[in-house]
Specification:
Four Helix Bundle (Hemerythrin (Met), subunit A), binds fe (ii) ion, 5 helices, globular, mainly alpha
Length: 160
Amino acid sequence: MTDDLALSAALEREHVEIDAGLEQLGTSLATGTVAAAPFAAAAAALRRHIYLEEEFLFPPLRTGRMVASVAVMFREHGDIWHALDEVEAQIVGGAAPERVRGALDVLLELLGEHNLKEERIVYPVIDRVMAGQSAHEMRGHLAGMRPYAGWTCQALRTPA
Ligand SMILES: [Fe+2]
Ligand SMILES: [Fe+2]
């Protein structure tokens, strides 16, 4: 990770890495096996990515003209979280590869559309809001952040 990497670039790289882990599962399914370990790593990375966006990166953008876009991102995180849980449930339940493939396709489609919107609309604003702060320091700060056990995205929380 180079020191001058913008936060948006670091986040986009996470999208690519998570996609690659999920694709490994897809490739394994085509041969009738289930690459559970790469999937588990990608699932953990995806949940952490959503956690960082919801708890640290997106809240400062929930004002002005970004309100609606950020609300859509939070809602889509709920759909993605559900789809991810479903793939996991299929694997844990020992479902046939074609059933896992079906669940994975739902997840990949949601993620593809969501990531594109973030990269085009939301992430550039993060970089602007961050202007003046060191992206390097911010990335260092976020590197140690992990969701606590039981953390779920906002859209799936039951109101108190
Ligand atoms: Fe997101
Ligand atoms: Fe993202």
